[in-house]
Amino acid sequence: MKRNKKLYTIVVIAFVLLSMVYQHITEPDTSDGGFLEVHFLDVGQADSIFIKKGSEAMLIDAGNNKDGKFVVDYIRKQGIENLKYVIGTHPHADHIGGLDDVIDNFQVEKVIMPNKMANTRTFEEVLDSIADKGLKITRPRVGDKYDLNGAQFTILAPNGENYSSTNDYSIVVKLVNGSNSFIFTGDAEALSEREMLENNRWALKADVLKVGHHGSVTSTIPEFLEAVNPRLAVISSGEGNTYGHPHKEIIELLEENKIEILRTDILGTIVIMADGENIAY
Amino acid sequence: MRFTIDRFEGEYALVELGSGHILDIPKAILPPEAKEGDIVSLRIEEEETEERRRRIQRKFDSLFSKD
User: Fold this and answer.
1) Chain A residues with beta carbon closer than 8 angstroms to that of B8
2) Which of A59, A149, A249, B14 could form an SS bridge with A53, CB 3.0 to 4.6 Å?
3) Inter-chain CB proximity B16 and A244 less than 8 Å
4) Residue A258: in which H helix or E strand, if any?
5) Which residues does chain A have within 8 Å of residue B12's beta carbon, measured at their own beta carbons?
6) Which residues, 6 or more positions from A173, have their beta carbon under 8 angstroms from its beta carbon?
7) What is the pairing mode between strands A208-210 and A180-184?
8) What is the C-alpha to C-alpha distance for residues B52 and A46, in angstroms, rounded to an integer?
9) Class assignment of domain B2-64?
């Protein structure tokens, strides 16, 4: 009887595990393909990513305070007046610095930010801009999906509520357009990467990885890179920055894995086109 | 002079000045307990500065040859 119970438990666990894997593999791909552009803006030692599909667009981070005008002008030049989503990955100044200018200058439908505040004027200015526009902040929930004109992104992190490093609150999203996929990591560090591996390992595979935390050794653990298994790695960092980003250990890890590296500190703004089947830049 | 600690990167602290500009300063010049979000003020220690100036001046004056 005892043995049967044990066997029963094993069978149940195996079934649950299998159905979890099955669910991920067979998750319906509702993305319709079509032309998607992903722009990694050259905002120096900071992040700002503009994404456009047809008439719909979104922004992930907006560089430092001083980059606000550049980001606003750049988006205008793309013929965009509406941003369906604005994501502030986490409240450090090199990610949310220019967000107040963006929110002031465009029609924004949804602002997504993690439940982590900063004590800077820079952060306060973003909150003031959000309030002035009568917007509310949407919290990221792992698994939540959002549509961008037929492309779709899913929230992969943060998976927890309390981190000692603000970077680990970073919102991580996976964007899928037809058979093309991108992962944008903000500054998520090893701890958040381990949580993503635990909760969503089979969803991490992507063609393009925005390397976490400007290529710092705090991020991109080998196991995470293996799960994403990207063809292209994009690093957003400033030429000659004080902190040595990207760190040589990360460059070596990417090279060992034969992943092509695109760096904003070398190339300036990088634009990747994804037509639903092929990726070009 | 006041600034807010935005974040730390390696051996540096990135601090936000009143103007909103961000500056790198070595972590070593901050109190060891300083953390993200802290507002730090710098001030000139006038009394201590004057005391030291007087002390060094005395030593300096006493070291001139008297001829």
Assistant:
1) none
2) A149
3) no
4) none
5) 242-243
6) A60, A87, A153, A154, A155, A156, A183, A184
7) parallel
8) 44
9) mainly beta
- According to DSSP, the residues that pair with A112 across neighbouring strands are A87, A138
**Helix (H) / strand (E) containing A250:** helix A248-256
Task: Return phi, psi of residue B51, to 5°.
Answer: -55, -45
| pLDDT tens string A16-37 | 555 555 444 444 444 566 899 9
What CA–CA distances, in Å, run from B10 to A31, A81, A247? Answer: 41, 39, 11
Q: What is the ipTM of this complex?
A: 0.83
**Alpha carbon distance A84, A86 (integer Å):** 7
Helix (H, G, I), strand (E, B) or coil at A141: coil
Measured between alpha carbons, how far is A116 from B48 in angstroms, rounded to an integer?
Answer: 41
Average pLDDT for A56-65:
98
A14 confidence band (pLDDT: 50, 70, 90): low
Q: Which residues of B touch A245 (CB under 8 A)?
A: 9
